[in-house]
Predict the 3D structure of the following.
Amino acid sequence: MFLTLPLFGLLWRAPWSTLPQRLTEPGILAALRLSLLTATLATAVSLVLGVPLAWLLARTEFPGRRLVRALVTVPLVLPPVVGGVALLLVFGRRGLLGSWLDTTFGVSLPFTTAGVVVAEAFVAMPFLVISVEGALRGADARYEEAAATLGAGRWTAFRRVTLPLIAPGVAAGGMLCWARALGEFGATITFAGNFPGRTQTMPLAVYLALEQDVDAAIVLSLVLLVVSIAILAALRDRWVAA
Amino acid sequence: MTLDARLVVNRPGFVLDIELTAAPGEVVALLGPNGAGKTTALRSLAGLTALDDGHVTLDGRRLDHEPPEHRRIGVVFQDYLLFPHLTALDNVAFGPRCRRVPRREARDKAREWLARVGLSEHVRKKPRQLSGGQAQRVALARALATDPKLLLLDEPLAALDARTRLDTRAALRGHLASFPGATVLVTHDPLDALMLADRLVIVEDGRIVQIGDAATITAQPRTDYVARLVGLNLYRGRAEGTTVRLPDGFSLVTAVPQEGPAFVAFPPAAVSLFASRPAGSPRNTWPATVTTVARHGDALRIELSGPIPVAADVTPAAAVQLELEPGRAIWATVKATETTAYPA
Protein backbone atom coordinates (compact mmCIF):
# COMPACT_ATOMS: atom_id res chain seq x y z
CA MET A 1 0.00 0.00 0.00
CA PHE A 2 2.65 2.41 1.13
CA LEU A 3 4.84 1.37 -1.79
CA THR A 4 2.20 1.63 -4.51
CA LEU A 5 0.10 4.57 -3.34
CA PRO A 6 2.45 7.27 -4.72
CA LEU A 7 2.33 5.55 -8.10
CA PHE A 8 -1.45 5.77 -8.13
CA GLY A 9 -1.18 9.41 -7.14
CA LEU A 10 0.98 9.97 -10.19
CA LEU A 11 -1.58 8.27 -12.44
CA TRP A 12 -4.49 10.13 -10.87
CA ARG A 13 -2.98 13.58 -11.34
CA ALA A 14 -1.71 12.91 -14.84
CA PRO A 15 -2.90 15.50 -17.41
CA TRP A 16 -4.37 12.83 -19.66
CA SER A 17 -6.04 15.29 -22.08
CA THR A 18 -2.85 17.08 -23.06
CA LEU A 19 -0.65 14.00 -22.81
CA PRO A 20 -0.14 13.41 -26.56
CA GLN A 21 1.15 16.93 -27.21
CA ARG A 22 3.35 16.94 -24.16
CA LEU A 23 4.90 13.60 -25.05
CA THR A 24 6.05 14.89 -28.42
CA GLU A 25 7.90 17.85 -26.95
CA PRO A 26 11.51 17.55 -28.11
CA GLY A 27 12.92 18.12 -24.62
CA ILE A 28 11.35 14.95 -23.27
CA LEU A 29 12.70 12.75 -26.00
CA ALA A 30 16.20 14.19 -25.65
CA ALA A 31 16.20 13.69 -21.89
CA LEU A 32 14.82 10.18 -22.25
CA ARG A 33 17.40 9.23 -24.84
CA LEU A 34 20.19 10.67 -22.71
CA SER A 35 18.93 8.84 -19.62
CA LEU A 36 18.74 5.47 -21.35
CA LEU A 37 22.14 5.98 -22.98
CA THR A 38 23.97 7.04 -19.84
CA ALA A 39 22.33 4.42 -17.62
CA THR A 40 23.29 1.72 -20.12
CA LEU A 41 26.85 3.01 -20.42
CA ALA A 42 27.14 3.28 -16.64
CA THR A 43 25.96 -0.33 -16.35
CA ALA A 44 28.51 -1.39 -18.96
CA VAL A 45 31.28 0.40 -17.06
CA SER A 46 30.09 -1.20 -13.82
CA LEU A 47 30.10 -4.66 -15.42
CA VAL A 48 33.62 -4.25 -16.79
CA LEU A 49 35.01 -2.97 -13.48
CA GLY A 50 32.60 -4.53 -11.03
CA VAL A 51 32.59 -8.20 -12.04
CA PRO A 52 36.39 -8.63 -11.72
CA LEU A 53 36.25 -6.70 -8.44
CA ALA A 54 33.52 -9.02 -7.16
CA TRP A 55 35.62 -11.99 -8.22
CA LEU A 56 38.60 -10.66 -6.29
CA LEU A 57 36.45 -10.12 -3.21
CA ALA A 58 34.80 -13.53 -3.37
CA ARG A 59 37.60 -15.80 -4.53
CA THR A 60 40.94 -14.45 -3.41
CA GLU A 61 42.66 -13.53 -0.20
CA PHE A 62 44.66 -10.35 -0.23
CA PRO A 63 45.67 -7.92 2.48
CA GLY A 64 43.04 -5.26 2.98
CA ARG A 65 40.26 -7.29 1.36
CA ARG A 66 37.84 -6.43 4.15
CA LEU A 67 38.70 -2.76 3.79
CA VAL A 68 38.10 -2.88 0.04
CA ARG A 69 34.74 -4.53 0.61
CA ALA A 70 33.80 -1.83 3.09
CA LEU A 71 34.90 0.88 0.63
CA VAL A 72 32.80 -0.69 -2.14
CA THR A 73 29.67 -0.18 -0.09
CA VAL A 74 30.48 3.45 0.75
CA PRO A 75 28.59 4.87 -2.27
CA LEU A 76 25.54 2.96 -1.02
CA VAL A 77 25.38 4.85 2.26
CA LEU A 78 26.84 8.12 1.03
CA PRO A 79 24.23 10.75 0.09
CA PRO A 80 24.54 11.00 -3.72
CA VAL A 81 25.10 14.77 -3.54
CA VAL A 82 28.13 14.17 -1.34
CA GLY A 83 29.29 11.60 -3.88
CA GLY A 84 28.96 14.25 -6.58
CA VAL A 85 31.02 16.71 -4.56
CA ALA A 86 33.66 14.02 -3.98
CA LEU A 87 33.77 13.27 -7.69
CA LEU A 88 34.22 16.98 -8.41
CA LEU A 89 37.13 17.12 -5.99
CA VAL A 90 38.81 14.22 -7.77
CA PHE A 91 37.85 14.72 -11.43
CA GLY A 92 37.20 18.46 -11.38
CA ARG A 93 39.39 20.75 -13.47
CA ARG A 94 41.48 21.42 -10.37
CA GLY A 95 40.88 17.97 -8.86
CA LEU A 96 43.41 15.32 -7.99
CA LEU A 97 43.06 13.35 -11.22
CA GLY A 98 41.10 15.94 -13.14
CA SER A 99 43.97 18.42 -13.50
CA TRP A 100 46.24 15.65 -14.71
CA LEU A 101 43.62 14.41 -17.20
CA ASP A 102 43.15 17.98 -18.39
CA THR A 103 46.80 18.80 -18.94
CA THR A 104 47.79 15.40 -20.36
CA PHE A 105 44.82 14.49 -22.54
CA GLY A 106 42.83 17.71 -22.58
CA VAL A 107 39.93 15.70 -21.17
CA SER A 108 37.55 17.19 -18.65
CA LEU A 109 34.78 15.08 -17.19
CA PRO A 110 32.58 17.44 -15.18
CA PHE A 111 29.56 18.89 -16.95
CA THR A 112 29.80 16.46 -19.88
CA THR A 113 27.81 13.39 -20.87
CA ALA A 114 30.81 11.27 -19.87
CA GLY A 115 30.58 12.95 -16.49
CA VAL A 116 26.98 11.77 -16.18
CA VAL A 117 28.13 8.21 -16.86
CA VAL A 118 30.87 8.51 -14.24
CA ALA A 119 28.46 9.87 -11.64
CA GLU A 120 25.88 7.17 -12.34
CA ALA A 121 28.47 4.38 -12.32
CA PHE A 122 29.86 5.67 -9.03
CA VAL A 123 26.51 5.45 -7.36
CA ALA A 124 25.17 2.31 -9.06
CA MET A 125 28.21 0.00 -9.23
CA PRO A 126 28.02 -1.20 -5.60
CA PHE A 127 24.64 -2.78 -6.36
CA LEU A 128 26.27 -4.85 -9.08
CA VAL A 129 29.38 -5.72 -7.07
CA ILE A 130 27.40 -6.88 -4.05
CA SER A 131 24.99 -8.91 -6.15
CA VAL A 132 27.76 -10.58 -8.20
CA GLU A 133 29.88 -11.25 -5.13
CA GLY A 134 26.90 -12.95 -3.52
CA ALA A 135 26.36 -15.06 -6.63
CA LEU A 136 30.04 -16.02 -6.67
CA ARG A 137 29.95 -17.05 -3.04
CA GLY A 138 26.89 -19.14 -3.76
CA ALA A 139 28.52 -20.83 -6.77
CA ASP A 140 30.60 -23.91 -6.03
CA ALA A 141 34.27 -22.93 -6.39
CA ARG A 142 35.10 -26.57 -7.05
CA TYR A 143 33.82 -26.19 -10.61
CA GLU A 144 36.75 -23.84 -11.11
CA GLU A 145 39.05 -26.50 -9.67
CA ALA A 146 37.62 -29.07 -12.04
CA ALA A 147 38.24 -26.67 -14.91
CA ALA A 148 41.82 -26.17 -13.74
CA THR A 149 42.51 -29.91 -13.75
CA LEU A 150 41.26 -29.96 -17.34
CA GLY A 151 43.89 -27.41 -18.29
CA ALA A 152 41.95 -24.16 -17.97
CA GLY A 153 43.84 -21.13 -16.67
CA ARG A 154 42.09 -18.77 -14.28
CA TRP A 155 40.72 -16.55 -17.02
CA THR A 156 39.41 -19.45 -19.12
CA ALA A 157 37.84 -21.07 -16.07
CA PHE A 158 36.19 -17.80 -15.15
CA ARG A 159 34.92 -17.09 -18.65
CA ARG A 160 33.74 -20.57 -19.58
CA VAL A 161 32.63 -21.99 -16.24
CA THR A 162 32.13 -19.42 -13.51
CA LEU A 163 30.51 -16.68 -15.57
CA PRO A 164 27.81 -18.95 -17.06
CA LEU A 165 27.12 -20.34 -13.58
CA ILE A 166 26.61 -16.91 -12.04
CA ALA A 167 24.89 -15.39 -15.09
CA PRO A 168 21.56 -14.95 -13.25
CA GLY A 169 23.32 -13.11 -10.44
CA VAL A 170 25.18 -10.88 -12.89
CA ALA A 171 21.95 -10.16 -14.76
CA ALA A 172 20.11 -9.30 -11.56
CA GLY A 173 22.98 -7.11 -10.41
CA GLY A 174 23.13 -5.43 -13.82
CA MET A 175 19.42 -4.69 -13.66
CA LEU A 176 19.64 -3.20 -10.17
CA CYS A 177 22.62 -1.19 -11.30
CA TRP A 178 20.83 0.04 -14.43
CA ALA A 179 17.70 0.98 -12.52
CA ARG A 180 19.72 2.85 -9.93
CA ALA A 181 21.68 4.65 -12.66
CA LEU A 182 18.48 5.57 -14.50
CA GLY A 183 17.07 7.24 -11.39
CA GLU A 184 20.34 8.88 -10.34
CA PHE A 185 19.90 12.55 -9.46
CA GLY A 186 22.13 13.93 -6.72
CA ALA A 187 25.57 12.95 -7.91
CA THR A 188 24.67 13.72 -11.51
CA ILE A 189 23.44 17.26 -10.92
CA THR A 190 26.40 18.01 -8.68
CA PHE A 191 29.10 16.56 -10.88
CA ALA A 192 27.66 16.93 -14.38
CA GLY A 193 25.26 19.83 -14.01
CA ASN A 194 21.95 20.25 -15.79
CA PHE A 195 22.48 21.07 -19.46
CA PRO A 196 19.58 20.02 -21.71
CA GLY A 197 20.67 17.47 -24.32
CA ARG A 198 24.08 16.99 -22.72
CA THR A 199 23.70 16.19 -19.05
CA GLN A 200 20.01 16.70 -18.36
CA THR A 201 18.71 13.20 -17.69
CA MET A 202 15.07 12.43 -16.95
CA PRO A 203 15.26 12.86 -13.15
CA LEU A 204 16.92 16.24 -13.61
CA ALA A 205 14.28 17.22 -16.15
CA VAL A 206 11.55 16.19 -13.72
CA TYR A 207 13.05 18.27 -10.97
CA LEU A 208 13.45 21.29 -13.22
CA ALA A 209 9.94 20.94 -14.60
CA LEU A 210 8.47 20.68 -11.12
CA GLU A 211 9.49 24.29 -10.43
CA GLN A 212 7.82 25.64 -13.57
CA ASP A 213 5.10 23.31 -14.71
CA VAL A 214 3.81 20.54 -12.45
CA ASP A 215 1.96 18.80 -15.27
CA ALA A 216 5.16 18.53 -17.31
CA ALA A 217 6.91 16.99 -14.31
CA ILE A 218 4.13 14.44 -13.96
CA VAL A 219 4.35 13.53 -17.62
CA LEU A 220 8.11 13.12 -17.40
CA SER A 221 7.73 10.99 -14.29
CA LEU A 222 5.17 8.79 -16.00
CA VAL A 223 7.43 8.29 -18.99
CA LEU A 224 10.34 7.38 -16.72
CA LEU A 225 8.13 5.01 -14.78
CA VAL A 226 6.71 3.27 -17.85
CA VAL A 227 10.04 2.94 -19.60
CA SER A 228 11.90 1.57 -16.59
CA ILE A 229 9.14 -0.88 -15.66
CA ALA A 230 8.82 -2.07 -19.25
CA ILE A 231 12.54 -2.64 -19.68
CA LEU A 232 13.01 -4.29 -16.30
CA ALA A 233 10.00 -6.55 -16.86
CA ALA A 234 11.30 -7.57 -20.28
CA LEU A 235 14.77 -8.31 -18.96
CA ARG A 236 13.45 -10.10 -15.93
CA ASP A 237 11.43 -12.53 -17.98
CA ARG A 238 14.35 -13.15 -20.22
CA TRP A 239 17.16 -13.56 -17.69
CA VAL A 240 15.86 -14.37 -14.27
CA ALA A 241 13.14 -16.82 -15.22
CA ALA A 242 15.64 -18.89 -17.17
CA MET B 1 54.43 -41.79 -16.63
CA THR B 2 55.83 -42.92 -13.32
CA LEU B 3 54.57 -41.13 -10.26
CA ASP B 4 56.84 -40.56 -7.32
CA ALA B 5 55.55 -38.35 -4.55
CA ARG B 6 55.86 -37.46 -0.93
CA LEU B 7 52.86 -35.52 0.27
CA VAL B 8 53.02 -33.49 3.45
CA VAL B 9 50.08 -31.26 4.35
CA ASN B 10 49.71 -29.68 7.78
CA ARG B 11 46.28 -28.86 9.10
CA PRO B 12 45.36 -27.85 12.63
CA GLY B 13 45.24 -31.12 14.53
CA PHE B 14 46.07 -33.21 11.51
CA VAL B 15 49.20 -34.00 9.53
CA LEU B 16 49.22 -35.86 6.25
CA ASP B 17 52.57 -37.40 5.46
CA ILE B 18 52.63 -40.20 2.92
CA GLU B 19 54.91 -41.44 0.18
CA LEU B 20 53.30 -42.68 -2.96
CA THR B 21 54.59 -44.29 -6.14
CA ALA B 22 52.76 -45.62 -9.16
CA ALA B 23 54.14 -47.19 -12.31
CA PRO B 24 52.68 -46.67 -15.80
CA GLY B 25 49.53 -48.73 -16.13
CA GLU B 26 49.41 -49.45 -12.44
CA VAL B 27 46.31 -48.74 -10.35
CA VAL B 28 47.06 -47.80 -6.76
CA ALA B 29 44.22 -47.51 -4.28
CA LEU B 30 44.40 -45.25 -1.25
CA LEU B 31 42.12 -47.00 1.19
CA GLY B 32 41.23 -45.70 4.61
CA PRO B 33 38.48 -44.53 6.94
CA ASN B 34 36.80 -41.15 6.50
CA GLY B 35 39.05 -38.32 7.61
CA ALA B 36 42.24 -40.31 7.06
CA GLY B 37 43.52 -37.71 4.59
CA LYS B 38 42.93 -39.62 1.35
CA THR B 39 41.15 -36.80 -0.44
CA THR B 40 43.71 -34.28 0.80
CA ALA B 41 46.41 -36.50 -0.69
CA LEU B 42 44.59 -36.60 -4.01
CA ARG B 43 44.04 -32.84 -4.04
CA SER B 44 47.69 -32.18 -3.34
CA LEU B 45 48.69 -34.47 -6.21
CA ALA B 46 46.40 -32.49 -8.51
CA GLY B 47 47.74 -29.19 -7.22
CA LEU B 48 44.45 -28.08 -5.69
CA THR B 49 45.89 -28.16 -2.17
CA ALA B 50 49.38 -26.80 -1.62
CA LEU B 51 52.06 -29.09 -0.18
CA ASP B 52 53.75 -27.98 3.01
CA ASP B 53 56.64 -30.31 2.29
CA GLY B 54 57.59 -33.16 -0.03
CA HIS B 55 57.38 -33.35 -3.79
CA VAL B 56 55.34 -34.58 -6.72
CA THR B 57 57.39 -36.00 -9.56
CA LEU B 58 55.82 -37.37 -12.72
CA ASP B 59 58.10 -38.84 -15.40
CA GLY B 60 61.06 -37.29 -13.63
CA ARG B 61 59.55 -33.79 -13.79
CA ARG B 62 58.88 -31.89 -10.56
CA LEU B 63 55.30 -30.68 -10.54
CA ASP B 64 54.80 -29.42 -7.03
CA HIS B 65 55.19 -25.76 -8.01
CA GLU B 66 53.14 -26.06 -11.18
CA PRO B 67 49.52 -24.87 -11.07
CA PRO B 68 46.91 -27.61 -11.65
CA GLU B 69 46.28 -26.53 -15.25
CA HIS B 70 49.87 -27.36 -16.23
CA ARG B 71 50.16 -30.72 -14.48
CA ARG B 72 48.41 -32.94 -17.01
CA ILE B 73 46.72 -34.83 -14.23
CA GLY B 74 43.14 -35.93 -14.86
CA VAL B 75 40.74 -35.95 -11.93
CA VAL B 76 37.37 -37.65 -11.53
CA PHE B 77 35.76 -35.92 -8.55
CA GLN B 78 33.53 -37.69 -6.07
CA ASP B 79 30.44 -35.79 -7.20
CA TYR B 80 31.86 -35.53 -10.75
CA LEU B 81 31.53 -31.71 -10.96
CA LEU B 82 30.26 -31.85 -14.53
CA PHE B 83 29.68 -28.28 -15.72
CA PRO B 84 25.90 -27.95 -15.47
CA HIS B 85 25.58 -25.43 -18.31
CA LEU B 86 27.40 -27.58 -20.88
CA THR B 87 26.23 -30.71 -22.69
CA ALA B 88 27.97 -34.02 -22.09
CA LEU B 89 29.82 -33.47 -25.36
CA ASP B 90 31.05 -29.99 -24.41
CA ASN B 91 32.00 -31.17 -20.95
CA VAL B 92 34.29 -33.78 -22.50
CA ALA B 93 35.52 -31.35 -25.19
CA PHE B 94 36.38 -28.77 -22.50
CA GLY B 95 39.81 -30.25 -21.75
CA PRO B 96 41.00 -30.50 -25.37
CA ARG B 97 39.63 -26.98 -26.02
CA CYS B 98 41.76 -25.67 -23.16
CA ARG B 99 44.77 -27.25 -24.86
CA ARG B 100 43.96 -25.17 -27.95
CA VAL B 101 42.57 -28.04 -29.99
CA PRO B 102 40.25 -26.53 -32.64
CA ARG B 103 36.56 -26.77 -31.79
CA ARG B 104 35.64 -29.37 -34.41
CA GLU B 105 38.54 -31.61 -33.55
CA ALA B 106 37.84 -31.30 -29.81
CA ARG B 107 34.21 -32.26 -30.38
CA ASP B 108 35.21 -35.24 -32.52
CA LYS B 109 37.55 -36.39 -29.81
CA ALA B 110 34.85 -35.92 -27.17
CA ARG B 111 32.38 -37.88 -29.27
CA GLU B 112 34.92 -40.68 -29.58
CA TRP B 113 35.46 -40.78 -25.80
CA LEU B 114 31.75 -40.75 -25.07
CA ALA B 115 31.36 -43.65 -27.50
CA ARG B 116 34.10 -45.50 -25.66
CA VAL B 117 32.25 -45.20 -22.37
CA GLY B 118 29.02 -46.22 -24.11
CA LEU B 119 27.24 -42.87 -24.11
CA SER B 120 26.94 -42.11 -27.85
CA GLU B 121 23.20 -41.61 -27.40
CA HIS B 122 23.61 -38.97 -24.73
CA VAL B 123 26.08 -36.48 -26.19
CA ARG B 124 23.52 -33.66 -26.34
CA LYS B 125 22.25 -34.09 -22.79
CA LYS B 126 22.97 -31.71 -19.95
CA PRO B 127 24.40 -33.23 -16.75
CA ARG B 128 21.08 -32.93 -14.88
CA GLN B 129 19.45 -35.16 -17.51
CA LEU B 130 21.99 -37.95 -16.92
CA SER B 131 21.66 -40.76 -14.40
CA GLY B 132 24.32 -41.19 -11.74
CA GLY B 133 26.09 -43.95 -13.63
CA GLN B 134 26.05 -41.97 -16.87
CA ALA B 135 27.39 -38.86 -15.13
CA GLN B 136 30.21 -40.95 -13.70
CA ARG B 137 31.13 -42.17 -17.17
CA VAL B 138 31.03 -38.64 -18.60
CA ALA B 139 33.34 -37.52 -15.79
CA LEU B 140 35.72 -40.36 -16.62
CA ALA B 141 35.63 -39.54 -20.34
CA ARG B 142 36.20 -35.86 -19.55
CA ALA B 143 39.29 -36.66 -17.49
CA LEU B 144 40.70 -39.13 -20.03
CA ALA B 145 40.07 -36.86 -23.03
CA THR B 146 42.88 -34.59 -21.81
CA ASP B 147 45.38 -37.46 -22.32
CA PRO B 148 46.56 -37.20 -18.72
CA LYS B 149 49.78 -38.75 -17.53
CA LEU B 150 48.23 -39.53 -14.19
CA LEU B 151 44.57 -40.24 -13.47
CA LEU B 152 43.10 -39.52 -10.04
CA LEU B 153 39.75 -40.94 -8.96
CA ASP B 154 38.12 -39.68 -5.76
CA GLU B 155 35.55 -42.21 -4.50
CA PRO B 156 34.47 -42.82 -8.10
CA LEU B 157 31.58 -45.11 -7.16
CA ALA B 158 30.47 -43.70 -3.82
CA ALA B 159 27.60 -41.64 -5.24
CA LEU B 160 25.99 -44.62 -7.02
CA ASP B 161 23.32 -47.03 -5.83
CA ALA B 162 24.29 -50.66 -5.30
CA ARG B 163 23.06 -51.99 -8.64
CA THR B 164 24.64 -49.23 -10.76
CA ARG B 165 27.78 -49.50 -8.72
CA LEU B 166 28.27 -53.12 -9.75
CA ASP B 167 28.00 -52.39 -13.50
CA THR B 168 29.99 -49.18 -13.29
CA ARG B 169 32.75 -50.85 -11.31
CA ALA B 170 33.16 -53.52 -13.96
CA ALA B 171 33.21 -50.92 -16.73
CA LEU B 172 35.66 -48.73 -14.83
CA ARG B 173 37.94 -51.72 -14.38
CA GLY B 174 38.05 -52.13 -18.15
CA HIS B 175 38.82 -48.47 -18.80
CA LEU B 176 41.56 -48.40 -16.18
CA ALA B 177 43.12 -51.49 -17.74
CA SER B 178 43.41 -49.75 -21.11
CA PHE B 179 44.72 -46.47 -19.63
CA PRO B 180 48.48 -46.31 -20.23
CA GLY B 181 49.29 -43.87 -17.41
CA ALA B 182 49.35 -44.37 -13.68
CA THR B 183 46.13 -44.27 -11.70
CA VAL B 184 45.60 -43.33 -8.06
CA LEU B 185 42.20 -44.18 -6.67
CA VAL B 186 40.81 -43.02 -3.35
CA THR B 187 38.11 -45.07 -1.68
CA HIS B 188 36.79 -46.16 1.68
CA ASP B 189 35.13 -49.21 0.13
CA PRO B 190 37.43 -52.26 0.33
CA LEU B 191 35.56 -53.95 -2.50
CA ASP B 192 36.32 -51.07 -4.88
CA ALA B 193 39.94 -51.16 -3.85
CA LEU B 194 40.27 -54.93 -4.17
CA MET B 195 38.47 -55.06 -7.53
CA LEU B 196 40.10 -52.06 -9.20
CA ALA B 197 43.60 -51.75 -7.80
CA ASP B 198 46.85 -53.60 -8.37
CA ARG B 199 48.24 -52.30 -5.12
CA LEU B 200 46.58 -51.07 -1.95
CA VAL B 201 47.94 -48.31 0.25
CA ILE B 202 46.13 -48.18 3.57
CA VAL B 203 46.05 -44.72 5.14
CA GLU B 204 44.97 -44.00 8.69
CA ASP B 205 45.32 -40.64 10.44
CA GLY B 206 47.42 -39.21 7.64
CA ARG B 207 49.97 -42.06 7.67
CA ILE B 208 50.45 -45.18 5.62
CA VAL B 209 49.86 -48.22 7.82
CA GLN B 210 50.12 -50.96 5.22
CA ILE B 211 51.02 -51.43 1.55
CA GLY B 212 50.44 -54.59 -0.43
CA ASP B 213 48.46 -56.38 -3.09
CA ALA B 214 44.94 -57.59 -2.44
CA ALA B 215 46.05 -61.10 -1.40
CA THR B 216 48.53 -59.86 1.20
CA ILE B 217 46.21 -57.26 2.66
CA THR B 218 43.28 -59.64 2.99
CA ALA B 219 45.39 -62.45 4.47
CA GLN B 220 47.65 -60.44 6.74
CA PRO B 221 46.03 -57.22 7.95
CA ARG B 222 48.19 -55.06 10.19
CA THR B 223 45.64 -52.80 11.84
CA ASP B 224 42.20 -53.25 13.35
CA TYR B 225 40.76 -51.07 10.61
CA VAL B 226 42.10 -53.33 7.85
CA ALA B 227 41.15 -56.47 9.76
CA ARG B 228 37.57 -55.22 10.06
CA LEU B 229 37.52 -54.31 6.37
CA VAL B 230 38.57 -57.78 5.30
CA GLY B 231 36.55 -59.49 8.02
CA LEU B 232 39.24 -61.04 10.20
CA ASN B 233 39.85 -61.21 13.93
CA LEU B 234 43.25 -59.65 14.52
CA TYR B 235 45.48 -59.63 17.62
CA ARG B 236 48.95 -58.31 18.23
CA GLY B 237 51.33 -59.86 20.75
CA ARG B 238 54.75 -61.37 21.28
CA ALA B 239 55.46 -64.81 19.87
CA GLU B 240 57.50 -67.49 21.61
CA GLY B 241 57.41 -70.52 19.34
CA THR B 242 53.82 -71.42 18.61
CA THR B 243 52.46 -69.35 21.51
CA VAL B 244 51.61 -65.69 20.99
CA ARG B 245 51.21 -63.83 24.28
CA LEU B 246 48.81 -60.89 24.06
CA PRO B 247 49.36 -57.72 26.15
CA ASP B 248 46.51 -58.52 28.58
CA GLY B 249 47.97 -61.94 29.47
CA PHE B 250 45.89 -64.14 27.19
CA SER B 251 47.75 -66.47 24.81
CA LEU B 252 46.86 -67.88 21.43
CA VAL B 253 48.41 -71.04 20.03
CA THR B 254 49.36 -70.98 16.37
CA ALA B 255 50.48 -73.65 13.94
CA VAL B 256 53.65 -71.98 12.68
CA PRO B 257 56.34 -71.01 15.20
CA GLN B 258 57.48 -67.36 15.39
CA GLU B 259 59.69 -65.20 17.58
CA GLY B 260 59.16 -61.59 18.61
CA PRO B 261 56.30 -59.17 17.88
CA ALA B 262 53.65 -60.95 15.83
CA PHE B 263 50.11 -60.71 14.55
CA VAL B 264 47.58 -63.53 14.80
CA ALA B 265 44.57 -63.47 12.50
CA PHE B 266 41.67 -65.85 11.97
CA PRO B 267 38.30 -65.57 10.23
CA PRO B 268 35.05 -65.48 12.23
CA ALA B 269 34.06 -68.80 10.63
CA ALA B 270 37.05 -70.48 12.33
CA VAL B 271 35.54 -69.80 15.75
CA SER B 272 33.42 -72.65 17.13
CA LEU B 273 31.00 -72.14 20.00
CA PHE B 274 29.99 -74.69 22.65
CA ALA B 275 27.47 -74.60 25.48
CA SER B 276 29.95 -76.21 27.89
CA ARG B 277 33.73 -76.62 27.94
CA PRO B 278 34.69 -79.00 25.14
CA ALA B 279 36.86 -81.91 26.27
CA GLY B 280 40.31 -82.65 24.92
CA SER B 281 40.04 -80.44 21.91
CA PRO B 282 41.54 -77.48 20.14
CA ARG B 283 44.37 -75.64 21.83
CA ASN B 284 42.60 -72.28 22.00
CA THR B 285 39.61 -72.49 24.29
CA TRP B 286 38.17 -69.71 26.43
CA PRO B 287 34.92 -68.70 28.14
CA ALA B 288 33.09 -65.79 26.54
CA THR B 289 29.85 -63.82 26.71
CA VAL B 290 27.64 -62.99 23.74
CA THR B 291 27.31 -59.22 23.26
CA THR B 292 25.48 -58.92 19.92
CA VAL B 293 23.89 -61.21 17.34
CA ALA B 294 23.42 -59.93 13.79
CA ARG B 295 22.72 -61.34 10.34
CA HIS B 296 25.79 -61.68 8.18
CA GLY B 297 25.04 -63.16 4.77
CA ASP B 298 23.67 -66.66 5.32
CA ALA B 299 25.24 -66.91 8.74
CA LEU B 300 24.85 -65.08 12.02
CA ARG B 301 27.69 -62.86 13.20
CA ILE B 302 28.15 -63.23 16.96
CA GLU B 303 30.25 -60.63 18.78
CA LEU B 304 31.78 -62.03 21.96
CA SER B 305 33.43 -60.37 24.94
CA GLY B 306 35.80 -62.21 27.28
CA PRO B 307 39.59 -62.38 27.57
CA ILE B 308 39.75 -61.26 23.91
CA PRO B 309 37.01 -59.59 21.84
CA VAL B 310 36.15 -61.83 18.94
CA ALA B 311 33.64 -62.18 16.13
CA ALA B 312 32.26 -65.64 15.31
CA ASP B 313 30.08 -66.80 12.44
CA VAL B 314 27.62 -69.62 13.14
CA THR B 315 24.70 -71.11 11.23
CA PRO B 316 21.20 -70.05 12.32
CA ALA B 317 20.53 -73.66 13.34
CA ALA B 318 23.54 -73.70 15.67
CA ALA B 319 22.52 -70.36 17.09
CA VAL B 320 19.08 -71.71 17.97
CA GLN B 321 20.52 -74.87 19.46
CA LEU B 322 23.03 -72.88 21.58
CA GLU B 323 20.35 -70.33 22.56
CA LEU B 324 22.67 -67.51 21.52
CA GLU B 325 21.45 -64.14 22.71
CA PRO B 326 23.15 -61.16 24.31
CA GLY B 327 24.37 -62.04 27.81
CA ARG B 328 24.64 -65.80 27.20
CA ALA B 329 27.84 -67.34 28.61
CA ILE B 330 29.47 -69.91 26.29
CA TRP B 331 32.82 -71.44 25.33
CA ALA B 332 34.75 -70.43 22.20
CA THR B 333 37.47 -72.42 20.46
CA VAL B 334 39.80 -71.86 17.52
CA LYS B 335 42.03 -74.56 16.05
CA ALA B 336 45.68 -73.58 15.87
CA THR B 337 45.74 -74.67 12.22
CA GLU B 338 43.05 -72.11 11.37
CA THR B 339 45.10 -69.16 12.56
CA THR B 340 47.62 -67.18 10.56
CA ALA B 341 50.61 -65.71 12.37
CA TYR B 342 53.05 -63.22 10.84
CA PRO B 343 55.67 -60.82 12.16
CA ALA B 344 54.43 -57.45 13.37
Notes: Chain A touches chain B at residues 140, 142-143, 145-153, 156, 160-161, 164-165 (CB under 8 Å). The first helix of chain A runs from residue 5 to 13. Chain A has a mean pLDDT of 87. Chain A is about 80% helix and 0% strand.
